[in-house]
Amino acid sequence: MYGDVDAVSDIPASACWRSLHESFPEAKIILTTRKNEEDWLQSWLAHVDAIHKSKMNFANLYFTPTGLKFLQFEKKSGELAFSSMPKSKYFDHDAEALKQAYRMHNIAVKQEIPRDKLLMFNLSDGWEPICEFLGKDVPGVPFPHSNKGAPVLDRHIAPMVFSRMNYELYCVVACLSILLSILLYLFIQVI
Q1: Most exposed of 57, 95, 101, 175 (fewest Cβ within 10 Å)?
Q2: CA–CA separation, 76 vs 70, rounded Å?
Q3: Which domain holds residue 84?
Q4: Assigned domain for 5 exists
Q5: Is the pLDDT confidence value at 154 over 80?
Q6: Crossing angle, helix 95-112 and helix 65-82, to 10 degrees?
Q7: CA 153, CA 46: separation in Å to the nearest integer?
Q8: CA–CA dist 106, 68 (Å, integer)
């Protein structure tokens, strides 16, 4: 699956790190960390909330083929990464269990990946550590922070997934409108 890929990030790859390491033992692993568990938890919950809080997203997720697939992906990824689906303030969640899953993940990666293949990296560290680890020159541009404090949905997910869901939802609404119009017309004709 990842044979022709140079790099992977985020879920589901981060949840499959063991099998990826076994398949690609020479690959370098960058474990992105946060200042503390609470910062990580707040970031995770903000990510989930950005997806689930709006009524339009609710309709997109539950009434379109792509939305239903996205929910399946989200559920499977959560099960893989956390043994259960992490929730947000819109759903029940156990903050301590999520922080423990984060902690255990980081401990396992640190224990199992050889030191020369692992970089513990905090995004606030900028280019230097990551470039040194990868044996690359430091670029002459600022380190990107496109997700810092920004809605994940607007910048990363919406262009790829939610625009398709919007189109599908418009199609569903149009088809239902036509169907209801036909039924109403037939009902009026019978009366």
Answers
A1: 175
A2: 10
A3: 13-190
A4: no
A5: no
A6: 70
A7: 10
A8: 31
